[in-house]
Amino acid sequence: MGRRDLIDLTPIGYVERDERDADLSGDELRDRPARIVLDPALTDGLLGLEPGSDIVVLFYFHESTGYDLQLHPRGDPSRPLRGVFATRSQYRPNPVGLTVVRVQRVEGNVLEVVGLDALDGSPVLDVKPHASYFDAPYLE
After folding, report:
1. CATH of 13-64+95-131, one of 3.30.230.80, 2.40.300.10, 1.10.357.10, 2.40.30.70
2. Which of 79, 95, 117, 128 is most buried by its number of CB atoms within 10 A?
């Protein structure tokens, strides 16, 4: 196997939600608004993000423990067994999530968004603008 160097990431902020989300599925989470509260020292980095913008949010599945290399998507045994890298499961060797969300409001260091499937308290690793050129499959 190739090199496996330790990578040290520091969250740029955290997800906040008004309701408990422990029993909600990813789809139910995406339907509810959430806030991404950035470290105040990073507020200037939000310049140019406006309501209606779509952004890519990378976050850490902080409540995820362990993983299997093969699983049934969504834990549903009626679905065919798949490799973890062919699923969106939170149970991964590196539990990193990625979701495209819509910005509803920017106020100071807080982004109000809809479409985020991260739990309350999830560490946010990065935010980038969604760009169809980069975020669509490469076609020759």
Report:
1. 2.40.30.70
2. 117
